[in-house]
């Protein structure tokens, strides 16, 4: 949703905002975290984000932030055949006093996945391809699956501000196609480069993986 129009202004959080407004939200957070470990055989934040991306509009927006996490957890568990499609709906109906048949428990199909280390930081043997102060362009390429390359920066030019450590590449890791770590760069874009001369003047810094960038020459 980042950078897409029509959502209105961004409201900063309240200073005293609690981590969880209601008790169920903390439980939803824990359930989603545990579901990811069960469904994927380990922590894969990129696969979790990809699960959220694949939710329909109602599941993503109408149930709120932590409702979205619960819906994502259900999708992860059905993806890996820990749950059968429709199992949660049937169980909820039965808990409400209805009498419906629940689908049989499927044979699990958990991906053959094991992270090479904790977290997302990795070491790579190659030197960074870009340097601080260098002008770079975000590639204008269609992405069929998960990515952390925002649509609003594609094809636009910015300046490298910071060369970050290497991270696991989300585009492949989300699909269990390997970690393929690469350097990450904090790239500064002007608002008018991204949204035209009519945009309010400000600068936006976006962290971008090396494979997302190309030379401007």
TrEMBL record:
It comes from the Bacteria. Keywords: Lyase. SUPFAM superfamilies: Electron transport accessory proteins. It is an enzyme of class 4 (lyase). InterPro entries: CN_hydtase_beta-like_N, CN_hydtase_beta_C, CN_hydtase_beta_dom_C, Elect_transpt_acc-like_dom_sf, Nitrile_hydratase_bsu. Gene3D superfamilies: 2.30.30.50, Nitrile hydratase, beta subunit. Residues 122-214 form the Nitrile hydratase beta subunit domain. Residues 1-101 form the Nitrile hydratase beta subunit-like N-terminal domain. It catalyses: an aliphatic primary amide = an aliphatic nitrile + H2O. Signal peptide: none annotated. Its EC number is 4.2.1.84. NHase catalyzes the hydration of various nitrile compounds to the corresponding amides. Belongs to the nitrile hydratase subunit beta family. This is nitrile hydratase. It comes from Streptomyces javensis. The gene is nthB.
């Amino acid at each position: 949703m980042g950078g897409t129009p029509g959502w209105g202004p961004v409201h900063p959080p309240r200073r005293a905002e609690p981590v969880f407004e209601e008790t169920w939200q903390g439980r939803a957070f824990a359930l989603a975290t545990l579901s990811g470990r069960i469904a994927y055989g380990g922590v894969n934040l990129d696969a979790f984000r990809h699960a959220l991306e694949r939710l329909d509009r109602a599941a993503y927006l109408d149930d709120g932030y932590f409702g979205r996490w619960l819906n994502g957890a259900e999708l992860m568990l059905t993806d890996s055949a820990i749950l059968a499609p429709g199992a949660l709906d049937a169980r909820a109906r039965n808990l409400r006093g209805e009498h419906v048949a629940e689908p049989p428990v499927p044979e699990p199909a958990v991906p053959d996945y094991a992270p090479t280390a904790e977290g997302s930081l990795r070491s790579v043997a190659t030197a960074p391809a870009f340097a601080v102060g260098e002008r770079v362009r975000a590639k204008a390429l269609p992405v069929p699956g998960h990515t952390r390359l925002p649509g609003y920066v594609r094809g636009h030019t910015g300046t490298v501000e910071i060369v970050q450590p290497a991270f696991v590449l989300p585009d492949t890791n989300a699909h269990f196609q390997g970690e393929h770590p690469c350097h990450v760069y904090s790239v500064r874009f002007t608002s008018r480069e991204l949204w035209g001369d009519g945009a309010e003047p400000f600068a936006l810094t976006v962290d971008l993986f090396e494979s997302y960038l190309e030379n401007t020459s």
